[in-house]
Backbone:
C-alpha cells in the first residue's frame, strides 16, 4: 500500500523522463547525434553560434535521412516527419530541453562556460550531458549548479552508424541520471556501456595507441602513412589510423591526445605527434577542410 503522505522523489532519486533533446554544437558529431534523435522520434533543438555551420548541418542531416530512404530503412514520410522534429537555432536562450548534449570543442574552459550558461537557462531537472571523449566528467561538473545532473554521453563518429555510446558517471553524478541516459541510448537503437570517469574512458584509452604508434612509425620514417593504412586495412580494420583521423578530424584527434597526455601526467606513451601538430597548424583538418593526411579536393 502506498503512503499518500510520503514526499515525492527528487529528480536524482528517480529516473527522469526524457522527451525533448537539445544538441549544442552542429559540427560532425553534433549533427550526427541530432540526426539520430529526430530519426527516433525526439523533438530536437540543434544550436550553433555559426549560422553557416548550422545550415550545412541541416543539409547533412537531410542527406543522411535521404540515404536511409534509398536503402529502404525509412519511408519518405518518415524522413519528412524526422526533419520536422529538428529545430535549428543560433539563439542560446531557446536551448531548453529535458536533456542537453554538448558537442563543442574539447576544451574544459569552453565546456564550463557553456554548461554554466545552460544551467542558468534550464531548471535543475535538465540533464547536462557531455559528448567529450577525454575530459573528466567530475571536473566538468565541479563548477556547475546541481552537478548531480552532469553526465558523459559519448557517441562515436559517425554517430548515425556507430552503435556504441559510453555513459560516464562523475563523482557527483546521480545514479538515476546515468540510468536515464543509458535508457535513452537504448531507445536510440544504440548499445550503451557504462564507463568509469578515467582518462579516455574505455575506447579512447584503448584506441589512442592506434593513432599515436601509427604517427610514430611515420615520424621515425619506418613507413609512409599510406603504407601504414594499407597494412592495417589488410589485417581487417575498416580504416587505417590516418584515414580515420581524417574522418574524425585531425584537430579533434590531436586535442583528445593532448588532453590524455596531460591527464596521464605527461606519460611519454601518450605524447602528441609533431606531424599531427603541423597538420593542425596548417588548417589541414581532414575531410571537413578538404585536406588532411589525404587530399579530398
Residues:
Amino acid at each position: 500500500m502506498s503512503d499518500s503522505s510520503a514526499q515525492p522523489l527528487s529528480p536524482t532519486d528517480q529516473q527522469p523522463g526524457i522527451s525533448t533533446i537539445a544538441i549544442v554544437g552542429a559540427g560532425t558529431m553534433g549533427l550526427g547525434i541530432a540526426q539520430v534523435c529526430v530519426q527516433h522520434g525526439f523533438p530536437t533543438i540543434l544550436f550553433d553560434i555559426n549560422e553557416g555551420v548550422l545550415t550545412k548541418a541541416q543539409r547533412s542531416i537531410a542527406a543522411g535521412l535521404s540515404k536511409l530512404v534509398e536503402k529502404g530503412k525509412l519511408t519518405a514520410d518518415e524522413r519528412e516527419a524526422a526533419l520536422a522534429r529538428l529545430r535549428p537555432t543560433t539563439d542560446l536562450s531557446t536551448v531548453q530541453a529535458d536533456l542537453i548534449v554538448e558537442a563543442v570543442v574539447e576544451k574544459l574552459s569552453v565546456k564550463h562556460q557553456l554548461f554554466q550558461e545552460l544551467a542558468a537557462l534550464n531548471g535543475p531537472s535538465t540533464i547536462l550531458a557531455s559528448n567529450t571523449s577525454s575530459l573528466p566528467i567530475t571536473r566538468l561538473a565541479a563548477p556547475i549548479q546541481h552537478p548531480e545532473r552532469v553526465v558523459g554521453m559519448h557517441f562515436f563518429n559517425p554517430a548515425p552508424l556507430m552503435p556504441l555510446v559510453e555513459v560516464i558517471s562523475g563523482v557527483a553524478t546521480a545514479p538515476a541520471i546515468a540510468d536515464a541516459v543509458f535508457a535513452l541510448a537504448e531507445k536510440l537503437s544504440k548499445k550503451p556501456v557504462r564507463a568509469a570517469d578515467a582518462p579516455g574512458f574505455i575506447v579512447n584509452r584503448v584506441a589512442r595507441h592506434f593513432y599515436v604508434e601509427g604517427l610514430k612509425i611515420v615520424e621515425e620514417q619506418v613507413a609512409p602513412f599510406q603504407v601504414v593504412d594499407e597494412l592495417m586495412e589488410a589485417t581487417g580494420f575498416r580504416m587505417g589510423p590516418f584515414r580515420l583521423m581524417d574522418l574524425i578530424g585531425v584537430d579533434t584527434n590531436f586535442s583528445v591526445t593532448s588532453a590524455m597526455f596531460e591527464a596521464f601526467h605527461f606519460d611519454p606513451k601518450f605524447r602528441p605527434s609533431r606531424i599531427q601538430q603541423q597538420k593542425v597548424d596548417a588548417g589541414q583538418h581532414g575531410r571537413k577542410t578538404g585536406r588532411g593526411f589525404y587530399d579530398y579536393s
Q: What stands out?
A: The chain has eleven helices and eight strands. Residues 204-289 form a domain with the N-(1-d-carboxylethyl)-l-norvaline Dehydrogenase; domain 2 fold (CATH 1.10.1040.50). The mean pLDDT is 93. The CA atoms of residues 52 and 59 lie 11 Å apart.
